[in-house]
Design brief:
Layout (H helix, E strand, L loop, with lengths): L2 H19 L7 H7 L4 H12 L3 H7 L2 H11 L24 E4 L2 H5 L6 E7 L6 E5 L4 E6 L3 H11 L4 E4 L3 H7 L13 E4 L3 H10 L8 E2 H7 L6 H9 L12 E2 L12 H15 L4
Parallel strand pairs: 1-6, 2-5, 7-8
Antiparallel strand pairs: 2-3, 3-4
Helix pairs in contact: 2-3, 4-12, 10-11
Length: 282
């Protein structure tokens, strides 16, 4: 991420953090703009460019009530989304087109000894991101500002693999989603290292449409493990592919956002941003 982009991202994150902390007071545009040292007009434009909606509407999208309403709407039919995959709007295709392939037992056990992994660093609306892929698909994606740490975390996951800094088509197609380009979702393939249970949880996450939310308990019930919310939560927390596998769409039953591997503030930003794309006419 360029220096200016990082500054803008930090300002937006700070603004969201302030709005969250003062939601009940319904802060005005001028008040929030002052907190991040921008004029109201400049802040309004920057925010609208980033989120695709006004700060006022975004405030509604990140509110507790909005989250609760989404949970109520989807309580009965959330995981029936397979039968309504958003084809009524080509700009709102759901993540169901993303396909997961588990790594072979040998690849899983030997730390990726036979794998050649390409990786690259890119910008996103939510901070710098590292994306990595094998010859079969994306195997890792994470938000991380420090490139050395990002690469170190990737290598730790596949200690015996061969690594090459190169952006391939798998990565380009996956990263296009950050530019609001949903046309390549059907080309995104994931090649993941995980147990059968983890893969099942991650596949279930893909059935939660953009702009919708679920809970840990509901997810556990839908995959036939209603008493395993804690195990489901652990599997969600070990998700190796940020954003594409939308673990950020799983929140607490109270409507609170809850934790996130890449930071709860970033999770709140993503949830609000996705709602602003789906409910732009809200």
């Amino acid at each position: 991420m360029s220096t200016q982009s990082q500054i803008d991202y930090n300002r937006i994150a700070k603004a969201i953090d302030y709005i969250q902390g003062n939601f009940k007071l319904q802060p005005s545009l001028e008040e929030v703009a002052e907190k991040i040292h921008l004029s109201p007009a400049h802040f309004q434009k920057m925010f609208s460019d980033w989120a695709g909606t006004s700060p006022k509407k975004f405030l509604q999208f990140i509110s507790l009530e909005h989250a609760k309403n989404l949970l109520k709407e989807e309580k009965a039919s959330l995981f029936d989304a397979t039968f309504e995959t958003g084809l009524s709007s080509t700009s709102r295709l759901h993540d169901l087109f993303v396909k997961i392939e588990g790594m072979s037992p040998a690849e899983y056990k030997n730390g990726g000894k036979s794998l050649s992994i390409n990786y690259s660093f890119s910008e996103s609306p939510f901070g710098n991101v590292i994306a990595a892929s094998t010859e079969k698909g994306i195997c890792y994606m994470a938000f991380e500002t420090d490139k050395n740490k990002a690469l170190g975390d990737l290598i730790a996951k596949f200690p015996n693999a061969s690594f090459f800094e190169k952006q391939d088509e798998f990565q380009k197609n996956a990263l296009s989603i950050f530019n609001k380009d949903w046309t390549k979702l059907n080309t995104i393939k994931l090649h993941l290292k995980g147990t059968d249970f983890q893969l099942k949880v991650w596949e279930s996450l893909l059935t939660i449409p953009m702009g919708k939310l679920s809970t840990y308990g509901n997810l556990a019930g839908k995959i036939g493990h209603s008493k395993a919310s804690r195990a489901v939560g652990t599997a969600i927390g070990s998700n190796p592919v940020a954003f594409l596998i939308p673990c950020h769409r799983v929140i607490q039953s109270s409507g609170n956002i809850g934790g996130y591997r890449w930071g709860s503030e970033r999770k709140q930003l993503i949830v609000g941003w996705e709602s602003s794309q789906v409910y732009s006419d809200f």
